[in-house]
Design goal:
Length: about 550
């Protein structure tokens, strides 16, 4: 492709609203443009990278036996009402009505629609297992879109759904998809970790996230410094043994006294469905609301902005396990007490792991201690079980002729988020550095001076000969050399071929974008040199 005819508008300065490197460089290098908050167009370079990512995904999923389809983005409200998610999904679900007043939703996810699609088609155990996937635009009305493609209101996603007649089949599919995801993200050149995660609004039981390690990630990963254990901080279990001191228990009394944080008891009042509960954690720990949600098996958990007197509280009181070991502690706030010994003075119904894990805590697998890292979620695998098939009546006949709910799995990859994660991990101060698997072009051919006949003629010949073997972007623009080099660094193609003053000698410069290494090459050896360098970079 000749750059003089290419739609590739570059910018010298960072956009004012671009906070992170990938957002800044993808806009400046002409890969994307914002149309509204959280909504982007993919320009030709960006579309080529997206297509390469999708190509890798399709290859691995097809090899795993999955079948591609395409479902509508507009979904009837009644499907979401069948599962109850129309009312509980929240304001992120974009809702609309047609001219007849019939309610619809723009697809934030497709569990309901795929279940409705297969419930009349997969009627026998003989048809199972089946895995179906699509690559499609999704819509979520984010409260605060930010970080470019990492948190938008419209994004591209690969979502797959598997259907089974037994838990064993689901386990096999889950393991296969986990392996497939690892192959996909490895092929894309990402530094990533699979971590134990929370299923969120999707539902189901076992689930893992695939996280691309990055300092700008919005998720914190807790991992062991001595093993493969890794979990989203929301799901990391705390395995700390607490022992109560043998100090004398002092008389319980009203009023606040000064104590260390590890002797303080902090209270959070929460509404769990229709029940009011008070949750207690130690002062130096942070309450993990996800653990409360999972303890009660519901998404209907809401923090109440009120303080209560624990001696008068009429609801249920639960506490983190660390609270049990507090001796002569204090309750702070409007209703303060001191010399508090929880088992003696408070009506605590149960002790559970309710806090966030901390760096330095022992790893839950018993190997090493916990360290934190930031990550960008790029994929997630779920065991949905019968969450959707039971509520939507999706059944099959088993070997005995008895109707059973389909057993389901769900597997997502954020395609546009993956593009941003790759950009975030592969950039320097000058611009992007695309891995071979996703680079829009392999070779950037640059003519220093298009007015020089020797340079222009040689560049044209090289373009005609190279484009049969490589993806080539040919900068034939009538721009200064400095402008061309800055744009080349921004765009970040793996290899740069510069036709300059030695064109009349048949010599060009070849430069690697990743290392900055450059060599002079006779044009007769150019193709073999490029092939050799690309093999080294693969």
């Amino acid at each position: 492709m000749k750059q003089s005819k290419y739609f590739n508008p570059t910018l010298r300065d960072n956009p004012a609203d671009a906070e992170i490197k990938s957002h800044q460089l993808l806009v400046r290098a002409g890969f994307i443009r914002q149309n509204a908050s959280g909504i982007y167009s993919y320009l030709p370079l960006g579309k080529k990278v997206l297509s390469k990512i999708e190509q890798v995904i399709r290859k691995e999923l097809d090899e795993a036996g999955a079948q591609e389809l395409l479902m509508p983005a507009i979904q009837p409200a009644e499907l979401w009402q069948e599962t109850g998610r129309w009312d509980v999904y929240g304001p992120e679900l974009m809702r609309l009505k047609d001219r007849h007043g019939r309610p619809f939703a723009l697809g934030a996810t497709h569990e309901e629609l795929i279940t409705s699609l297969v419930r009349d088609e997969l009627s026998s155990y003989k048809q199972l297992p089946v895995t179906l996937y699509q690559i499609q635009t999704k819509y979520r009305d984010e409260r605060r879109p930010r970080f470019g493609l990492l948190r938008g209101r419209e994004f591209i996603m690969k979502d797959a759904y598997s259907f089974h007649s037994s838990e064993e089949q689901l386990d096999d599919a889950y393991k296969l998809m986990h392996k497939t995801y690892s192959k996909i993200f490895t092929s894309l050149g990402l530094d990533f970790r699979p971590v134990v995660a929370d299923s969120g609004a999707i539902g189901g039981k076992d689930t893992e996230e695939f996280m691309a390690l990055s300092s700008v990630g919005e998720d914190t990963i807790a991992y062991s410094d001595s093993s493969d254990y890794a979990a989203n901080i929301e799901m990391a279990e705390v395995h700390v043994q607490y022992e109560k001191s043998d100090e004398e228990e002092l008389p319980f009394a009203k009023g606040e006294v000064e104590t260390s944080l590890d002797h303080q008891i902090h209270t959070t009042v929460m509404k769990v469905e229709d029940e009011m509960i008070a949750v207690l954690v130690r002062g130096d720990h942070e309450l993990n609301e996800i653990k409360v949600k999972n303890l009660y098996g519901t998404n209907m958990v809401e923090v109440q902005n009120e303080e209560v007197d624990l001696k008068e509280f009429k609801g249920t009181v639960i506490a983190d396990t660390a609270v049990k070991a507090i001796a002569n502690g204090s309750i702070i706030g409007a209703y303060a007490y001191h010399n508090v010994n929880p088992d003696r003075d408070l009506s605590i119904e149960r002790y559970e792991d309710l806090r966030f894990i901390q760096e330095g805590d022992p790893s839950p697998d018993g190997n090493g201690t916990i360290v934190f890292a930031e990550g960008i979620e790029i994929g997630q695998v779920f065991k949905l079980g019968q969450t959707y098939s039971e509520t939507m009546g999706a059944k099959f006949l088993d070997e005995g002729g008895k109707a059973q709910p389909l057993i389901m799995g769900c597997y997502g990859i954020g395609v546009s988020r993956t593009l941003a994660a790759i950009a975030e991990q592969n950039a320097d101060d000058n611009g992007l550095r695309w891995p071979l698997a996703v680079t829009p072009y392999h070779v950037h051919l640059i003519t220093i001076n298009v007015k020089d006949a020797d340079q222009s003629d040689l560049s044209d010949r090289l373009y005609d000969s190279l484009k049969d073997e490589h993806d080539v972007l040919y900068d034939d623009r009538k721009e200064r050399a400095g402008v061309k080099f800055k744009d080349a660094d921004l765009i970040g193609l793996p290899l740069r071929v510069v036709v300059g003053k030695k064109a009349n000698e048949g010599i060009v410069e070849v430069k690697r974008r990743d290392t900055g290494e450059s060599i002079e090459v006779p044009v007769d050896n150019l193709n073999s040199t490029l092939q050799q360098l690309l093999e080294q970079m693969n």
